[in-house]
Specification:
mainly alpha, 6 helices, elongated
Amino acid sequence: MTTTTHPAPTVRLGHGVATDDLLNAGVAAGPVLALTWLAQGLVRDGYDFTRHPMSLLALGEGGWVQIANFCVSGGLMLACAAGLRRILTDGPGARWVPRLVATIGAGLIASGVFTADPGAGFPAGAPEGAPVMSWHGILHEVGHLVVVVAWIALCFVLRTRFAWLGDRAWARACVAMVPIAIALVAFPHLDSFPVRIVVASVVQLGFVGLAARRLGR
């Protein structure tokens, strides 16, 4: 007698949005953020990868592209959170994993809505030194802080989730990712700091997306 194996059905949300697509949105967030930053940095007049943080690209002519970059990346994280909410129905982290991923998305969107202050000579005419903080500059930094804190908390919640599932490799990876991200930012080399911030962000968002895909299995 021949046994036929049928593939598992794809879970879909309203309007035909597949849960797999929502989880894949989390995987896309990091590359979207980095590639858009790279493309802008190559064409924006006066932008220096070694001197200017990514956030400064949201200022001046063409700044709307970086604003959209933050918002789209945040939206992809929100989509990923929606997918996680569908697949995590019980067990450790079932509530907090989607909430923390959504918080990361909200922090990214806030970083786009509230722009940084000009400084380090960018855009043209900006003061050469450190920026003078405005209310929107402060809120921009708060948005970034929210992303970092939520991501660290998420790593430890995911660690508990994967340990409960018996996935020891991923449980260990969740703990290891925190010092890796911190080391990328804290490495004492001033000229590479703006680039390392972007690399750390891509690592953080990429890890969230890959963890979501792993949970989706």
